[in-house]
Specification:
Helix content is 39%, strand content 34%. The chain has helices spanning 2-11, 53-70; strands at residues 20-28, 32-39, 45-51.
């Protein structure tokens, strides 16, 4: 049943981060955080990973610079 709920969630066209209530921070890592969230419309509970895109951009820039000097 849970897999079917996730499939339906992914197919929803107008779902956004604002459709969820953030319950608890589960984990923090180098690239983002994982939150326990509850979908407001259904009450279903999920784990949501939020990736910090500014860190991804900075890492890509560093890799590009290192590749430039190493070539």
């Amino acid at each position: 049943k849970k897999a079917n709920n996730i499939d339906n969630l992914l197919r929803a066209k107008s779902i956004s981060i604002w459709d969820f209530e953030f319950l608890k921070l589960i984990s923090k890592g180098a690239y983002g955080r994982v939150w326990l969230v509850k979908r407001k419309a259904t009450g279903d509970v999920y784990a949501m990973k939020l990736i910090d895109s500014s860190d991804k951009v900075a890492i890509k820039r560093i890799i590009m610079i290192l590749n430039f000097f190493l070539v």
